[in-house]
Amino acid sequence: MVFVSSGSATTRHPSRKREHRIAGQALTVNNYFNYFTEIEERYLKRRGSGLLLSTIDWALIETWKNAGIPLDAVLRGIDETFDKYERRPSKTKKINSLAYCAQEVLGAAEDMQEASVGATRQQTESVPGLGTAEIVTYLTANAEKLRNIESSAQVETIAGECAASLADLAEALKSGSVPVKLEDLERRMTILEEKLMAVLTVAAPEDKLVKLRTEADREIAPYRTKMPASQIDQLLKQFVHKRLLEQAKMPRLSLFYM
User: Fold this and answer.
1) How many domains does the chain have?
2) How far is CA 208 from CA 17, 58, 203, 213, in A?
3) The whole model's pTM is what?
4) Distance of CA 248 to CAs 12, 152, 212, Å?
5) Is the same domain home to 93 and 175?
6) Which residues in the chain show pLDDT less than 50?
């Protein structure tokens, strides 16, 4: 697992070595367990500096993933943004956030969708997915982290329930009593993480939530004109959620974070 510094915060993101896809579904965004990493590497390569991605950047990538925007559309949008920037005669402002690429990413996604209308989706070959042993290790480690959470009784109770679910699932996968279906696993992880987010939000003092929302508004402010309102709302939500999880020292459960 790799950690990057973002101002005063430390952001966890998926391992750079992840290059797996979900078997048999190579046309969907969930194929790419290196979705975050490829976007990060393309952006930093075009940016041409040691600047690290911020919490807002990681939250934006997650909104793209959750919205089903293909990896190719994001990469194309990043390239088009920098290509246009490099053609400008004067460059008074640098591209210092992925949010500057948001319009081109959405445009590329729309172009790809239009191009696919009427096209016949061909059967894709199965490709290697994550190994069962890797998944079992990941689930077991996250279960242990959740058991060791120190928080309010309300949060610890839900964290304990989620830890038990992860441990049971890990044992079932290890014994072979349930098949390894990555999409189903990812749905389970999403549900468990939503439970954790719900209890963290309920348990958090109002002043803390206001402070986090203010921080999110401040960081997003320069890019509001570059994104639709629906994406901004989702980005605000993702930002607050990531901060709550970080402050509670809770692991991300999605397989994308292996």
Assistant:
1) 2
2) 35, 21, 10, 9
3) 0.62
4) 13, 10, 14
5) no
6) 1-32, 118-128
